[in-house]
Amino acid sequence: MTIKILLADDHKILREGVKALLNRQEDMEVVAEAGNGEEALSIAGEIRPDVTVMDVMMPQMDGIEATRRIVEDGSSRVVALSMYADRSFVSEMLKVGALGFLLKDCASTELVEAVRKVMDGEIYLGPSISHIVAKLYVSSLHDPDDIEPLTPREKEILMLLAEGNTNREVAERLHLSIKTVGTHRQHIMNKLKLKNLADLVKYAIRNGMISINR
Fold it and tell me: Any idea which residues bear 4-aspartylphosphate here (predicted)?
């Protein structure tokens, strides 16, 4: 049986690479592509693919919300892809029903195996993601987290700020006003109970949102 796959990612060049990889497998076929979460939700409901390979951060509707709705509708099983080994991304994607989670720099064989495992209803986590899940479990036992979760937009702004961008640069990149970015920044600091930008950078590194080697 051929596994019918929907690719959802806002970077066309990445979709093309993943599509070529999966279409080389005798038991797989990429039958549709989506450039944002809303498209993914609409297409999944229409064609009901066996597996959706879903980017976590996308415009219009993020992968977390799209996955939640797709799983609730029973349209498809989901493998999540992310550039960042962020604990909150992993936790939220698994909570809304994704069965697989991989980083975008994973080996091609991992993605192929993940699609097959998820097709069979099994869970597949990349090595670094398994480590994060283990840490989340231990933390839930010994150190309950009372921090209010960030929204996808707040996470995006946090990562850009932690990478050294100013409020103005973040505003230009995300097509927001400087005032809006400043408001988001203050909300982030309040939610995470951080005092300054240095604390924000440390938080981003500790949670895998940016690389310490940047």
Answer: 55
Q: What is the pLDDT of residues 27-71, one digit of tens each?
A: 999 999 999 999 999 999 999 999 999 999 888 899 999 999 999
Among the residue ranges 27-31, 169-173, 196-200, the one predicted with the least confidence is: 196-200
What CATH architecture applies to the domain 3-140?
3-Layer(aba) Sandwich (3.40)
Q: Are 63 and 6 in contact (CB under 8 A)?
A: no
Vertex 128: Cα angle to 60 and 110 (nearest 5):
80
Tokens of 118: 């998820």
Over the range 39-72, which residues count as b (16 or more CB within 10 Å of their CB) and which as e?
bbbebbeeeebbbbbbbbbbeebbbbbbbbbbbe
More confident residue, 138 or 153: 153
Reported as half-sphere exposure (CB side, CA atoms, 13 A), residue 147 has a value of: 18
Q: Is pLDDT at 207 greater than 80 in this prediction? A: no
**Which pLDDT score, from 0 to 100, does residue 86 have?**
80
CA 98 to mean position of chain CA atoms: 10
Architecture of domain 152-206: Orthogonal Bundle (1.10)
Whether 146 shows a pLDDT value over 60: the answer reads: no
Which residues on neighbouring strands pair with residue 51, listed in sequence order?
5, 77
Cα gap 39→132, rounded to integer Å = 29
* Domain regions of the chain by residue span: 3-140, 152-206
* 66 backbone dihedrals φ, ψ, rounded to 5°: -60, -40
